[in-house]
Amino acid sequence: MTLFRFEEVTKTYGPVTALNNLTLQVPEGAVGLLGPNGSGKTTMIRALLGLIPVDKGSGEILGMDFQRRQLDIRRMVGFAPEDETLFPSVVGVEFVAYAGELVGMSSKDALQRAHETLDYVGLGEARYRKVDSYSTGMKQRLKLASSIVHDPKLLILDEPTNGMDPAGRDDVLELARDLSHNKGMSLLFSSHLLPDVEAVCDYVVVMGAGRVLTQGSIKELKQEHRGRFEVRVKSPDQSHFGRRLAAMGCQTEVREDSLLVEIPPGRSSSLVWELAAAEREQIRYLRPQRSTLEEVFLKAVEQP
Amino acid sequence: MKPIVAFHEVSKWYGNVIGINKLTLDIPAGVTGLLGPNGAGKSTLLQLATGQLYPSQGTVTVLGRRVWNNPGLNHDIGLCPEQDAFYEWMTGWDFVHTSARLGGLGRREAKEAAKRTLDAVGMTKHQNRVVRGYSKGMRQRTKMAQALVHDPQVLFLDEPLTGTDPVARRDLMDIIQRLAGEGRSVLVSSHVLHEVQSLTPNIVLLNHGRLVAEGHVRQIRDLIDKHPHHIVLVSDAYRAIASRVVAWEDVEAVRIMTKEQGVVVETRAPDAFYGRLPELAMSPETPIREVYSDDDNLEAVFKYLVNK
Amino acid sequence: MPIFDQGYQHWNGTLSGHGWRWLAIARRGVQNGMRMRGMRIFLFSAWMPALALSAFLCFWGLLERQSAMIKPFLQVLSFMTPAVLKEPKLYRVEIWTVAYDIFLWIELWYSMVIILLIGPNIISQDLRFNALPLYFSRPLRRIDYFLGKLGVIVGFIALVMVFPAIVAWVLGLLFSLDLTIVRDTFPLIVRGVIYGMIVTVSAGLLVLALSSLSRNSRYVALFWLGIWFLSSVLSTVLEKVEFEQRQHAAFQRSARALRDPEFSQRPIAEQFAERRRMQLEAQRQREALLREQARAAERDWRPVVSYAGNLTRIGGYMTGSYRSWETFARLMPENRRDDFLRTFAGARFPWYWSGGVLLGLCGLSICILNFRVKSLDRLR
Question: What is the ipTM of this complex?
Fold first, then answer.
């Protein structure tokens, strides 16, 4: 099932081309949106919200043509923007109810639903206090609650963990993961923090200069390097063990805290254990080497 | 080893509110991460170390000299603050050049230093544009440039990587590593644990204005008695491994992860446990494909110590 | 199912069309406004003139019925011409018109104050806290947003001007127990309500535009005070300057006679007679000056400078109060008529000048709003 689809979409603002013949099809689920500053992410998000007309091209979001059914699209999409957008001296639950009323809910529905979503994001008694007294984590959760109050099919999160301390970040990521995996809401997660994206999303789109540089499921993009392992032994000097491995025919690379080992074809990683037993060494870390999402990103962005 | 930054029984309060509570801390040379939840006192600590605040109690020294009211010390200190406050009408070049001149460099020196620094942070292409038009990443780079331009011995960085895209982040982290390699000392305060983790294993952890832990992450982990170590073994024969391992005396709990084909073992004697692994791995019924520690990292340490 | 899912629930309700969105925005704005400290006290005081109006109309109704209840209060009305008091029914329309004219003028000032209290924050707060994405990422258009914000002003001015006028009318009706009043005064109340709408739209659009100009609501409040007070002051100053000029010219003319150097040579009796004649002449000239002034006022552009003055002029036109004042003036002795009209009847320049100025301001406001509150279709 396609979440949204763009075909040859171009959008320019004067001399600046924000979207350059963008062609993209994205499946439902939790999708990460990555890209350096100025890559067109913000413009694409605004197009997804049905906010901007485009110069050329066509597209559909949740099956609706984004040039014709802009208001309908915004009924089905929830958006938690990056900046703070909270009035002061508004009580938390009123703010969320107002957000619901702005979508078209009746005031009774909006209030009932506001309490439900506030329960879900974990703002208990704090909802009756004014938002000035909230910590950053609470404000982000309030923003999240106000963006899901109308039960959207697609939730767009723009840098949701900006400026949060580790505890708050975990909370928000947990909520995002739950919504997208267990509650049937598709998620578009735009962030610069790659581990966050990895923790929540299954599919990722990397943009640059107004087009798609690479896209795919995270698992496939982070290929496993067959036969290559990262190894760490107990003794602080990794190079000794590394030399012994090299003597056994492995290609080793000594890093500051670990070893990158390539097992010769025909042998398996039991080789490492044998050597450890022989040397009376403890293996503290042994895992196949995988490229991280950061490497995938940098490779995609820095391609000529 | 002489500490770079030394706090001796330092307290700082604002009216009734305590910012730092009887902190005694020696920060060694190299890159050190400063961590803590919101309100822990990280900003207060940085402001005390750079001489912006006067301690209510105790003394603060940097490079062996008193910080307060010592402008000469600023030759050797560089600060990259968290706030995004520039003179928006200046160009990047103006800003860094003016910082260099304010730092005491002569006219020609300042020009060269500014050019060099802007090149180091990758802003040469944009140096003639006004700061108002900069993206967040460019601003962070410029901030870093003004902290480096007078070639300081000690750098204090407060959330240097917020809002930067991965390309800028990689560049800035490379710069920090290079500075450490040149013998300078860097204190990085950040909320983003995995960034600190990739920079350095040496951390200082604050909570409620007090020092909770300092040193190498893994050593700290070893010292946390309350939480047994989690060690993960991945294997096709995970259940066989589980049955073997549960018989060992120092193993406190064994949890099966069916999806990952692994076993999570909790033990308070990790050394003894690791010592027995090679033998276990070489036995034909219980080969071990992967071994790693689930909570040997900064996030786990943070969570355990700060008691979410 | 004994245990219920405490987690996230889906919601299947209906959403209203975007045409109703302004109501949600307006309602929220009014709630916020009512929460301000002192707002309720202020609204209460704004109803005082309404109470006074109602009391007066009721009183007049009783007077028409020659009710015994009001005999002791007749003293209060002794300032009025006895002719009016003898035949109240005849002058009913005029009295009601004049009463409403004064009432609307007072309530206009209350409206200006209310707009000063709630107006500046209306859009400027959204700009300051960057709340526009909150609105525009939801299914509503810019026009709905503006209508909603205007609705806040409509709400408050209706509370201050329109409802009290209607309530006073109904009470006056009840106390005179005469259905012919409906026929006589119905056009008046309709026009009064329309006038309230005009004030709302004009002042509302103006304050919305001002509010969108700055993030700092204090500057907006200052702008509003500027438009309201400063323009009045400027207009008065201009009028006074013009009057002084005319007076000075007239004085110059009469003084020429006195500068005759041979005057003091003449015999005393002749000097006395001459002085007497000149005093009478001066008196006549003063009156001529005032008449000239009154005539000039009919084409004078200076009052148009004052914003509140424009609104008052439109109010005068809507209620048709000049004619009523003229009727009363005719009952007065000849020599006091002009004075009376000048004091009570207000400005006389053509109403369509004011109308033009107000329309122009509305157009300007719409342009400013269009420019300042952009949709999110832009680069940054």
Answer: 0.79
B88 inside 8 A of chain A by CB:
no
Radius of gyration of chain B (CA): 24
CATH of domain A2-221: 3.40.50.300
Average pLDDT on B23-27 reads: 92
DSSP A160: T
DSSP state of C228: I
Residues of A in contact with C21 (CB under 8 A): 102, 104
Residues of CATH 3.40.50.300 domain(s) within chain A? 2-221
Does C21 sit within 8 Å of A119, measured CB to CB? no
Confidence of residue B62 (pLDDT cuts 50, 70, 90): very high
pLDDT at B227: 83
| Number of domains chain C is built from | 1
Tell whether B181 is within 8 A of chain A (Cβ): no
Residue C257 has pLDDT above 70, yes or no: no
Q: Which of A127-141, A275-289, C297-311 has the lowest mean pLDDT?
A: C297-311
Give which of C12, C121, C124, C137 to mutate to test A binding, by max A Cβ within 10 Å: C137
Asked, for residue C280, whether it belongs to a domain, the answer is: no
DSSP letter at A263 equals P
Average pLDDT of span C144-155: 91
- Predicted confidence band at B284 (pLDDT cuts at 50, 70, 90)? confident
DSSP chain B: ---SEEEEEEEEEETTEEEEEEEEEEE-SSEEEEE--TTSSHHHHHHHHTTSS--SEEEEEETTEE-TT-GGGGGSEEEE-SS----TTSBHHHHHHHHHHHTT--HHHHHHHHHHHHHHTT-GGGTTSBGGG--HHHHHHHHHHHHHTT--SEEEEESTTTT--HHHHHHHHHHHHHHHHTT-EEEEE-S-HHHHHHH-SEEEEEETTEEEEEEEHHHHHHH--SSPEEEEEE-TTHHHHHHHHTTSTTEEEEEEETTTTEEEEEES-HHHHHHHHHHHHHSTTS--SEEEETT-SHHHHHHHHHT-
- Inter-chain touch A282–B163, beta carbons under 8 Å: no
Share of chain C above pLDDT 90, in %: 3
C chain contacts of residue A109, beta-carbon cutoff 8 Å: 11, 13
pLDDT grade, residue C378 (50/70/90)?
A: low
Please list the residue range(s) of chain A that carry CATH number 3.30.70.100: 224-294
Whether C5 is in a domain gets the answer no
Q: Which domains does chain B have, with CATH numbers?
A: 5-221 (3.40.50.300), 226-306 (3.30.70.100)
Residue-number span of the structural domain to which C184 is assigned: 19-228+354-372
Would residue C345 count as lying in a domain? no
Q: Which residue of C has its CA nearest to A113?
A: C11
Note whether residue C138 is domain-resident. yes
Check whether domain A224-294 has CATH 3.30.70.100, yes or no: yes
Q: What is the pTM of this model?
A: 0.81
C18 touches chain A (CB under 8 A): yes
Is residue A271 predicted with pLDDT exceeding 60?
A: yes
**Greater confidence, C88 or B2?**
B2
CA gap B215, B219 in Å, rounded: 7
Question: pLDDT (tens digit, 9 = 90+) per residue, B195-244?
Answer: 898 889 899 999 989 999 999 988 888 888 778 889 999 988 889 999 99
Tell me what pLDDT residue C52 has.
87
Closest CA–CA distance from residue A114 to any residue of chain C (Å): 11
Interface of A with B (CB under 8 A): 34-38, 135-137, 159, 162-170, 192-195, 234, 257, 269-270, 273-274, 276-277, 281-288, 294, 297-298, 301-302
Which of B166, B289, B306 lies closest to A298 in CB terms? B166
Distance CA C226, CA C235 (A): 13
